[in-house]
Amino acid sequence: MRKYKKYSNKLSFKNKLARFIWSSCWLIFFRPFNLPIFNFIRIFLLRIFGAKIGYGCKIQATVKIWAPWNLEIGNLVAFGANVLCYNPGKIIIRNKVAISHGAHLCAASHDYTKMSNPLATKKIIINDLSWIASEAFIGMGVEIGEGSVVGARSVVLKDIDAWSVVSGNPAKIIKKRILQ
Fold first, then answer.
1. Which of 20, 73, 99, 175 has a CA that sits 20 to 30 A from residue 85's CA?
2. What are the residue ranges spanned by the domains of the chain?
3. pLDDT tens digits for range 70-117
4. What pTM was estimated for this model as a whole?
């Protein structure tokens, strides 16, 4: 059985306060500036709230990040419109990764085997040169191998091998990715 980092259902006051302040800043300063020239403001705000972000990243104004302090992004990463990063647990995105519009990265769930239904988290890792296509769902504890492609609307609940193309619900390997 996998080991999860567990939280009580009652999040700390500090966590709630930080998320309230972040959500307010997101609403007032992050989301309204939808033009590409304001990308530097969005990255600046994420860094202020603890996100580790490399150079050359593009983040759309409609991206929703639950906890910037649990987000690590490498160089040359692009987030499309309406991407949702639900990250009570860590989300690590390496270099040259594309996350297409509407994708959902979910680093937490609940332990339904316990009466208290506590929050359980496990980090998501998306390795170099990967592409998460439109409206794909990446579940907690998943590692996407280097150079992999996750097809549109796929549901990934298990690790994906490097240089694979996967699709479906649940996602299955379609073929190996070969670059020309």
1. 175
2. 11-176
3. 999 999 999 999 999 999 999 999 999 999 999 999 999 998 888 888
4. 0.90
